[in-house]
Design the sequence.
């Protein structure tokens, strides 16, 4: 018994001591010098992103574009029109440099909470941004709220900012599902009015985790409001071993438009199964998700032609700063996989830029001042990569003036097709048949 | 005899002091997070140990009780504004009831089939959770609110409070397990584990005792779920109801020492430590952290199949063997 | 009616992948009494072999199948010698957890070496296309898993029943020590059956790449259904695993078609639970 207890004691001691003793010097693996303090010349920013797990590719790409953007902000780039690029570092703080502390949340909320606490209390980051799914943002928001650290995300769940929780430190410049789906239905009306598409029936094809479950009720709401008949409503598991019964049901219903909220894996399996069943959906509008991931596009290739998706950024946006960004990324040494810049990257990258602008404006990293600056940001829309209508927040930290659009894939890239003002391509309706 | 027991009291006092001092010594939220998760995993392991360790029925689906505990807290707060201090006991009762139903059905199976059946039931429960709008479905449930009284609603702003509270609960459960360990109940369970037919011929109602052990394990796991919910303040089925969680519960116990009182605690401490720190140091190498984590687990389970708790015994045995060998040698 | 027929047919096809995984699990279970959690990862590795054979050499998965089976056979031997042989000396529970930890190592090694992104075959596959019978649409590439399952079931049956090695494996599975006494090397029998199981998973992985995507964690879901198929089929029964795999595929598709796609896997679990309630040792269990 005695030996037993002393052993227990020893093990507890060793591990807990080791666990806690190492904390101060952890996290320097990312090239971050410094002694764990945000002193006058470096400002630490926490980046939570999935470096392992099923979204690891996107997470690594987002980490890469963050590093590229940090270099742009920290160095002098007078030739660029992008905000914060012209001068080196944060000028209002004697040219202080941004320093990223990148942490892995493994697409797992418990891990994300643990890492958020580490970033805040041991790495002393002034704010957290990165690549979040809505579920992870919800879990991390509790932590940032308790420690009064700004959290800036671009995931799309409406419930984060509809008043169900009154977060003070949560900011979302990007749009929510509500806007994306309203765009979708406006686009269908637009097709009916201008292209004589004759869309009457729709079917919903949604995966059953957080992402799809947020979208389904909003789609139902707008379908009723806009007078489209829902002929089939499929909920499926994104890790399903097959989607046969799902496809057979869609084929039976044969809707005019198929609304898909899918991840990469299930979208790939869906199209393969469609081909096996010799079925081509009349028209497909995806809700971002898998449709704007580079591995999806690589796997699909030309088979993705004429598939539409909603989005908040496209490479054909006709502004100087967008062209600059595409160029920068194409030639960046961080872009090791040589992937094209996509919506999913840019809307995350925007958050870092906003954060830098807010620090510049506040002239300090003190959290209350930073919060004020984030909420009342001075901006010049011509220097931002996403040309939103404007920035103004409601009481829950949601930008109410952001807007999205619909893009259609053709010949290797998504092209804006709606709204007509920014369109670079005429929409093609319906989709031509797949090559069986 | 008296001397020995006073020594033992000293030891316990020492442990108590260390438990009190540690969170003060390492006073950051991340250290506290690790300690809290260690407590939760220790509870999960101790709970699972009753059915998996003492009774020898390897359940691979205990995540459902973890989820029932967590959701009981969340839903009772949302629906009836019930304090988690009460809700967690309601959750325990609920889990016991569900364990009764599931156990009645599944405990007839032996060996691998029981494990697979629990996995199948866990998968069904997961699907039911994500398709039930009333409990938030796949979008999960939120109970965080700055307006609630932190003490009454167990939403402390200081992570240290969580550590102390959860440590206290672990110690209570540990004392309970220690007491139970010496009762007929656990001897019967061990007898059933050893040889069910023999145990039955000795007059033990094996089915009843197994069911009781299953329910007891569900109650403790459910308690851990409630504590997890109060710590995270948000949950959804993909966080809490995965087959991975079910497997990790087994792993924690087996690494520490299956069927022992202290094993699950040691397993929880070691496993949480390995998983948090391999991630912090190695996750920048695209999955290397999990490879190393897996290799460490293989090595520990492979070379110490009776769990980390068996190490002192092994050393002792080794020493004795050398000792006796040393004694015999000159005699020859 | 035609939807029902199509559903039934597709169910059998989808079930044959489960059957293939289940047969591997059943072999290891029957011979060594280990519930192998790494079987799904052998499937994943088979898929990667098929993917790279296609990408680098332009091979069809059906051509890459022997290669994949061979690679996985060798890997199976290595893993058996390195880990499983030692694990067999420990308690059953730690054997299971070692295969679980092994699956973790394999998944994340795959991520480390092949990347975490989702992939599908990049070069065009020759054996594809559809045959439209009017009442039934048959995708040629989906016949592969079905035919493979039939062939593997037949081969395993023949191997275990009629070859010297197979008989030795069967004898070992009945009583390891007695088998040792009559001159059978039990370790060798174990090695061969573990490697065979992983080779079957490797071949199944090739068949799966015809229509499924691949990524490091692809094995986990298939494995769960593989387990259920084996438990339903009965203790270590190859035939049982094969037939209950097909049955689960049918249950999956028909629940999806006629009840609700969201709960199609509940349908599968219910079929399993009902089956084992009536026959606790599985449909073909002795």
Sequence:
């Amino acid at each position: 018994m005695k030996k037993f207890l002393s052993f227990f004691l020893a093990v507890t001691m060793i591990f807990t001591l080791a666990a806690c003793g190492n904390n101060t010097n952890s996290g320097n693996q990312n090239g971050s010098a410094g002694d764990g303090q945000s002193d006058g010349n470096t400002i630490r920013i926490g980046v939570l992103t999935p470096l392992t797990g099923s979204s690891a590719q996107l997470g690594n790409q987002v980490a890469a574009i963050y590093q590229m953007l940090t270099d742009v902000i920290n160095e002098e780039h007078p030739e660029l029109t992008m905000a914060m690029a012209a001068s080196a570092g944060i000028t209002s703080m004697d040219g202080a440099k941004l320093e990223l502390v990148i942490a892995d949340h493994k697409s797992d909320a418990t891990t994300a909470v643990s890492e958020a606490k580490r970033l805040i209390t041991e790495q002393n980051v002034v704010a957290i941004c990165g690549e979040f799914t809505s579920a992870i943002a919800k879990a991390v928001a509790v932590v940032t709220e308790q420690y009064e650290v700004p959290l800036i995300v671009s995931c799309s769940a409406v419930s984060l900012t509809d008043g169900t929780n009154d977060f003070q430190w949560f900011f979302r410049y990007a749009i929510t599902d509500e806007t994306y789906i309203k765009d979708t239905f406006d686009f269908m009306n637009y097709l009916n009015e201008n292209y004589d598409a004759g869309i009457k029936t729709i079917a919903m094809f949604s995966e059953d985790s957080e992402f799809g479950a947020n979208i389904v009720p909003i789609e139902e709401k707008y379908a009723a409001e806009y007078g489209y008949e829902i002929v089939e409503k499929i909920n499926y598991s994104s890790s399903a071993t097959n989607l046969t019964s799902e496809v057979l049901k869609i084929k039976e219903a044969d809707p005019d438009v198929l609304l898909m909220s899918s991840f990469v894996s299930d979208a790939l399996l869906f199209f393969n199964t469609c081909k096996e069943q010799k079925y081509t959906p009349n028209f497909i509008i995806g809700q971002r998700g898998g449709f704007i991931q580079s591995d999806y596009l690589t796997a699909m290739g030309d088979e993705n032609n004429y598939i539409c998706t909603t989005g908040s950024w496209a490479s054909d946006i006709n502004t100087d700063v967008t062209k600059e960004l595409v160029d920068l990324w194409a030639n960046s040494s961080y872009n090791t996989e040589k992937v094209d810049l996509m919506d999913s990257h840019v809307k995350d990258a925007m958050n870092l830029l906003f954060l830098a602008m807010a620090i510049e404006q506040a002239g300090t990293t003190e959290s209350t001042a930073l919060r004020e600056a984030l909420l009342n940001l001075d901006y010049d829309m011509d220097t931002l990569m996403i040309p939103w209508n404007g920035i103004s927040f409601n009481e829950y930290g949601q930008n109410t003036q952001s807007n999205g659009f619909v893009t259609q894939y053709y010949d290797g890239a998504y092209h804006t097709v709606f709204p007509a003002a920014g369109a670079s391509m005429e929409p093609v309706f319906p989709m031509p048949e797949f090559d069986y | 005899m008296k001397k020995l027991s006073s020594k033992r009291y000293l030891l316990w006092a020492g442990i108590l002091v260390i438990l009190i001092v540690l969170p003060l010594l390492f006073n950051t939220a991340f250290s506290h997070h690790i300690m809290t998760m260690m407590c939760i995993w220790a509870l999960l392991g101790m709970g699972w140990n009753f059915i998996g360790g003492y009774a020898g029925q390897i359940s691979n689906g205990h995540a459902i009780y973890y989820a029932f505990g967590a959701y009981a807290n969340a839903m009772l707060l949302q629906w009836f504004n019930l304090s988690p201090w009460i809700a967690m006991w309601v959750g325990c009762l609920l889990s016991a009831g569900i364990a009764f139903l599931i156990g009645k059905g599944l405990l007839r199976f032996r060996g691998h089939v029981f494990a697979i059946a629990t996995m199948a039931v866990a998968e069904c429960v997961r699907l039911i959770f994500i398709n039930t709008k009333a409990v938030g479905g796949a979008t999960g449930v939120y109970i965080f609110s700055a307006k609630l009284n932190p003490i009454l609603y167990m939403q402390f702003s200081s992570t240290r409070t969580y550590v102390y509270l959860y440590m206290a609960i672990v110690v209570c459960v540990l004392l309970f397990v220690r007491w139970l360990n010496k009762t007929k109940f656990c001897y019967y369970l061990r007898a059933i584990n050893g040889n069910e037919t023999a145990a039955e011929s000795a007059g033990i109602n094996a089915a009843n005792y197994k069911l009781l052990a299953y329910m007891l394990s569900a109650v403790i796991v459910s308690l851990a779920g409630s504590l997890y919910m109060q710590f995270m303040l948000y949950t959804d089925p993909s966080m809490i109801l995965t087959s991975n969680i079910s497997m990790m519960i087994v792993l924690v116990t087996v690494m520490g020492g299956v069927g022992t009182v202290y094993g699950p605690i040691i397993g929880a401490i070691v496993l949480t430590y390995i998983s948090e720190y391999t991630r912090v140091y190695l996750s920048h190498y695209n999955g290397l952290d999990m490879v190393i984590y897996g290799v460490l687990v293989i090595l520990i389970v492979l070379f110490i199949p009776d769990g980390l708790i068996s190490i002192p015994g092994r050393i002792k045995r080794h020493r004795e063997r050398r000792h006796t060998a040393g004694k015999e040698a000159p005699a020859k | 009616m035609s939807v029902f027929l199509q559903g039934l047919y597709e169910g059998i096809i989808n079930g044959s992948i489960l059957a293939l995984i289940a047969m591997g699990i059943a072999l290891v279970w029957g011979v060594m009494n280990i519930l192998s959690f790494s079987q799904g990862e052998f499937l994943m590795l088979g898929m990667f072999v098929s993917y790279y054979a296609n990408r680098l050499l332009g091979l069809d998965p059906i051509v890459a199948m022997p290669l994949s089976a061979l690679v996985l056979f060798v890997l199976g031997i290595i893993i058996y010698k390195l880990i499983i042989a030692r694990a067999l000396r420990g308690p059953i529970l730690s054997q299971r957890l070692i295969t679980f930890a092994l699956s973790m190592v394999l998944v994340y090694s795959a991520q480390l070496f092949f990347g975490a992104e989702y992939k599908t075959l990049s070069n065009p596959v020759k054996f594809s296309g559809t045959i439209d019978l009017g009442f039934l649409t048959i995708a040629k590439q989906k016949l592969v898993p079905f035919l493979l399952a039939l062939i593997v079931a037949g081969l395993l049956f023949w191997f275990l029943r009629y070859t010297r090695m197979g008989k030795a494996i069967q004898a070992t599975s009945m009583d390891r020590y007695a088998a040792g006494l009559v001159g059978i090397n039990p370790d060798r029998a174990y090695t061969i059956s573990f490697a065979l199981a992983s080779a079957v998973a490797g071949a199944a992985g090739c068949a799966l790449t015809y229509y499924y995507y691949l990524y490091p964690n692809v094995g986990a879901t298939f494995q769960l259904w593989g387990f259920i198929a084996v438990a339903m089929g009965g203790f270590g029964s190859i035939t049982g695993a094969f037939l209950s795999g097909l049955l689960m595929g049918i249950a999956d598709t028909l629940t999806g078609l006629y009840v609700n796609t969201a709960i199609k896997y509940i349908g599968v679990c219910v079929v399993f639970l009902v089956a084992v309630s009536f026959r606790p040792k599985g449909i073909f269990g002795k």
